[in-house]
Specification:
Blueprint: H1 2-10, H2 15-59, E1 63-64, H3 66-79, E2 89-97, E3 103-111, E4 121-122, E5 134-144, H4 149-152, E6 156-164, E7 173-174
């Protein structure tokens, strides 16, 4: 019996195969995890780009119409490609200084979400709205799903808020036509 144990301890045949069998699942998980992380970071970057683009496009106007809002939403929906635009929520609001360092909603539009209530107060970071000024606030929420996270965690909501000051006027007005 002792001889059998010594022979077993000296045996090296198949050792590489056993080590590979033990490490292969770990290496596969690390590989898939790095792909998943890169995909999620790419999606988050797109969400940030969507909010910045929408705010920038609206901030260039003096008056915004329904057609302008539709065009901005279409542009934002195209940025999310190759991810599906299903479930993408966009809220575009114009905030004016409320005198207490916050903003008061003058108009708001939304896609797949609820627009902010006109006249409601919104807290904004210090210094974003100058005294007597206004800003455009764009809030984007994207439900990120990937094949791997469907089995692990499900949907992750990626959000981005972006503020932009009007470029050609003190505030941006909103009309239906």
């Amino acid at each position: 019996m002792l001889t059998l144990l010594r022979r077993f301890a000296r045996a090296k045949d198949g050792l590489a195969a056993i080590e590979f069998a033990m490490l292969a699942p770990v290496m596969a998980a690390m590989f898939l995890g790095s792909i998943e992380l890169a995909d999620a970071l790419d999606c988050q970057q797109k969400v940030t780009g969507m909010s910045a683009t929408a705010a920038d496009l609206i901030a260039q106007e003096t008056n915004v119409t329904n057609n302008d809002i539709t065009n901005v939403e279409s542009a934002v929906n195209s940025i999310v490609y190759p991810y599906p635009a299903t479930g993408l929520k966009i809220v575009i609001s114009c905030l004016v200084d409320n005198g207490t360092g916050g903003g008061k909603v003058t108009w708001s539009d939304a896609q797949n979400a609820t627009a902010r209530t006109v006249g409601s107060n919104v807290s904004v970071p210090t210094g974003v709205i100058t005294s007597g000024g206004s800003v455009v606030l764009v809030e984007v929420t994207y439900p990120y799903n990937s094949p791997v996270t469907d089995y692990l965690t499900g949907t992750t909501n990626m959000t981005s808020n972006f503020y932009a000051r009007p470029r050609r006027s003190t505030t941006i007005t909103r009309s239906a036509t």
